[in-house]
Amino acid sequence: MIENVVEDYLFNNQGKNLSLKKIQKKLNIKFKKAVYLAINSHHIEIVKPLEVGCNKYFMHLYKYKE
Description:
Shape: globular
Radius of gyration: 11 Å
Strand order of the largest sheet: 1-3-2
Distance between the termini: 21 Å
Order of helices and strands: HEHHEE
Structural class: alpha+beta
Oligomer: single chain
Helix content: 25-40%
């Protein structure tokens, strides 16, 4: 299995709701790969946009769950 760098990054930033674009830029990986790694991890959960003050239906916002 591939090492999940997105999961490691979110583990180091626990308690923060981070967008996948920000994570992708920090880790210097492609956006599609970041989406794949985030969706296929059991330790990452999607954050509802209202938690960060946005009224959109869906955004790529994730956080590490324990």
